[in-house]
Design a protein that fits this description.
about 70% helix, single chain, about 260 residues, 12 helices, mainly alpha
Length: about 260
């Protein structure tokens, strides 16, 4: 167990160093890029489309925390999945020379993404609270528990896609098209209530939908997510993680034949 934890810590550090080595802004880019994205969407949504959070008659700035609570979990999820998909293929030379547990590579890549975006999430929530936005900072620890559950969901998809990518090299390119569509099919930039009623039920088939809605209910009092939905989210995250890991372990012995 100690060896596995040491390997995870090593590969998380390596992932963070490789990602930002030589970058002028260093790891601050993990905060700057989503902030720039939030500023653009906030301006377009508030001043171009005149959008407001459901049931909120406040100033245009009220859309900013609403968007932040959708974008930060999505960025963590999407980055963890997409970067983990090619991690076995990218480390083919290392796998051929050193007996490294392949699952550690996937776990470490996903964990690095969630650590960076989790830090950014905490920073932006505190900043919005200090700026006078109606953000419930006392609920931040509970929100981080939801982030941990989202990590399980992302890890399951990461294991599954990383294993399939070894045999189907086009998967990573396909994900580049699928992930933006997935984002717009999730309540990241809008609320379920803003959809025509006939389409709202489809969100129940999207495993990511729970997280922005739950975080908004916690941090903004925007709607309510009942215990049944929370229980389903826990079961789905654990099931996807377990399924992804089982598929990964079953395909693991054949990786070197295709790398």
């Amino acid at each position: 167990m100690n060896t596995s934890m040491a390997l995870v810590a090593h590969f998380v550090r390596r992932e963070l160093q490789n990602r930002y080595l030589g970058s002028i802004s260093g790891s601050l880019w993990a905060l700057m890029q989503p902030l720039a994205q939030l500023a653009i969407y906030g301006f377009v949504w508030a001043y171009v489309f005149k959008m407001r959070p459901p049931g909120d008659d406040a100033s245009p700035g009220a859309i900013v925390p609403f968007l932040a609570l959708g974008m930060w979990p999505w960025n963590a999820f999407a980055e963890a999945v997409t970067r983990s998909t090619t991690v076995i293929q990218d480390n083919a030379g290392l796998i051929g020379k050193v007996a490294v547990p392949r699952a550690v590579l996937v776990f470490s890549t996903a964990a690095a993404s969630f650590l960076l975006h989790g830090f950014g999430f905490c920073a932006i929530m505190v900043a919005l609270g200090l700026a006078g936005m109606s953000v419930h900072l006392l609920m931040l620890p509970v929100a981080l528990l939801a982030f941990a559950l989202l990590f399980l969901l992302a890890l399951g998809f990461s294991f599954l896609f990383a294993a399939v990518q070894v045999f189907v090299r086009d998967l990573s390119q396909a994900l580049g098209q699928i992930m933006p569509l997935w984002m717009f099919a999730s309540p990241v930039l809008y609320a379920r209530e803003q959809l025509p009623e006939a389409y709202r039920g489809w969100f129940g088939f999207n495993p990511f939908s729970f997280y922005p809605e739950y975080l908004r209910s916690l941090m903004l009092d925007a709607g309510r997510v009942d215990v049944v939905a929370q229980s389903i989210a826990v079961v789905v995250a654990i099931a996807v993680c377990a399924l992804g890991y089982v598929v990964f372990r079953r395909l693991d012995p054949r990786f070197e034949d295709f790398l």
